[in-house]
Amino acid sequence: MSNQNYECHESIGLQALDALSNEALWQSTLTANATRRRAIARLLVHLALIEERRLHLVRGYSSLYDLCMRCLGMSEGQAHRSVSGAHAAKTYPLALEMIADGRLHLTGLSLIVKRLTAENHARLLEDVAGRTKADILIVLARWFPKPDVPDRVEPVSGGSRPSEQGSLSLDGGSRRLSAARWSRPSARRPNACLWTS
Q1: How far apart are alpha carbons 57 and 66 in whole angstroms?
Q2: pTM for this structure?
Q3: Do residues 162 and 123 both lie within one domain?
Q4: How many domains does the chain have?
Q5: Residue 188 belongs to what domain range?
Q6: Can you give the pLDDT of all 197 residues of the chain as single tens digits?
């Protein structure tokens, strides 16, 4: 083992951990994870206060996201989740409490943060507690169902129209669509063309 590796292992206590019994290692892992969760919650509060005071700008970072990546060494995903979590922490202290005690992970919070309201936050947070990312997406689909996809697309702008010869040029003439695929403008929207299947 190189001297550098030895120093790294020594600084994080790997030699001491290696000497632990299986049960002691298990308990130490649970303790380390609880410490990690509380540290994440504490970091979210720090980030919220930094943003509130605009300290990131004073320190030369264009945004809280930029600070998370360039100063704190986070990946893009970690930075996004941390900024989302910091925003939620300011408004919904229950979310912060759930991060700290392990009922909610930061990924889960980042998935639901834009859906939280003063009226629904307690119920929604409890509904996603202890769930995986995939399960949280299912909960969100149940809470906020999306309408079925329509059979046709209705452009809102006047856009391109079929030419007199019965085709529509999309890119200067190299590709054409048959005008038979276009129906007359809708009575509801006089300027809209309907694409039908």
Answers
A1: 10
A2: 0.68
A3: no
A4: 2
A5: 148-197
A6: 455 554 555 566 777 888 899 999 999 999 999 999 999 999 999 999 999 999 999 999 999 999 999 999 999 999 999 999 999 999 999 999 999 999 999 999 999 999 999 999 999 999 999 999 999 999 999 999 988 877 777 777 755 555 555 555 555 554 545 444 444 444 444 444 444 44
